[in-house]
């Protein structure tokens, strides 16, 4: 299986390491970084994992792992008021077919926390 890699995700992981580095006094004690990725975020979780491994080694966080929680996308149809899950905004509402909707969740990319050895 070939890993798809995008510069966008490498840049995101670089920013994540910039964010957490001041909180981590001993890079060898970082166990895990927890992130949430929504399907409408434009972020490829597999590319994040690849970028994390590459940058973790470069920055001295060799033993750390990235834990990715993938969420679903929840949208609200402005035409009929139905809330539904959707991974593809090119599809209309399953009830009425309308394309007017508001994204309620699924467009997030968040750093939720880190885990350290004591």
What does this structure look like?
This protein has 118 residues and is α+β, with helices and mostly antiparallel strands. The protein has a domain at 7-73 and 105-116: hypothetical protein PF0899 fold. 25% of the residues lie in helices and 29% in strands. It has helices spanning 7-20, 45-59, and strands spanning 30-37, 65-70, 74-77, 83-85, 101-105, 109-116. The strands form two sheets. The protein has a three-stranded mixed β-sheet with strand order 2-1-6, covered by helices on one side. It has a three-stranded antiparallel β-sheet with strand order 4-3-5, with no helix packed on it. The radius of gyration is 18 Å and the shape is elongated. The termini are far apart. The mean pLDDT is 90.
- Backbone CA Rg: 18 Å
Return the string of H and E elements.
HEHEEEEE
Give the strand tally.
6
Helix content: 10-25%
Could you name the key traits of this structure?
three-stranded mixed β-sheet; three-stranded antiparallel β-sheet; hypothetical protein PF0899 fold; elongated; 118 residues; alpha+beta
